Amino acid sequence: xxxxxxxxxxxxxxxxxxxxxxxxxxxxxxxxxxxxxxxxxxxxxxxxxxxxxxxxxxxxxxxxxxxxxxxxxxxxxxxxxxxxxxxxxxxxxxxxxxxxxxxxxxxxxxxxxxxxxxxxxxxxxxxxxxxxxxxxxxxxxxxxxxxxxxxxxxxxxxxxxxxxxxxxxxxxxxxxxxxxxxxx
Length: 184
Prior knowledge:
mainly alpha; Rossmann fold; 2 domains; two-stranded parallel sheet
């Protein structure tokens, strides 16, 4: 969750730099009941307090799938940077939430971690940064806030990309063709 703390710091920086616009962020996700998770949550709350961004943040915690999808309709941008864990775990592929939010028609700010670049439209890839590059994430957030005219284009291209590459019917046909080649 270290990158999580940096995101809140970046949101604080963005709020201070762009006082001309109202920025509201919603954080979705929960920590476990372990002592380490509770300590991380305390650190997150300390950053929120230190950055004075509490009024600009909503902390939803764990949400079911329906609530997550509904949240997409209430927001303009989805931010989800992924990193390789210190033990080498990469979770593999791309986070399903990124795919779902791209399908919901949101511009995605993330990292070039694993398969994330491949699940997003080419135009959205300019919003991806290297892992653990918090200053680059802040730069991309600032750029996107300064270019709201780009949001719709990126969102539509993401939606089209997901529909063409990840639709269950297309994937089923592709898989059937692979199996047919193997048995031929």
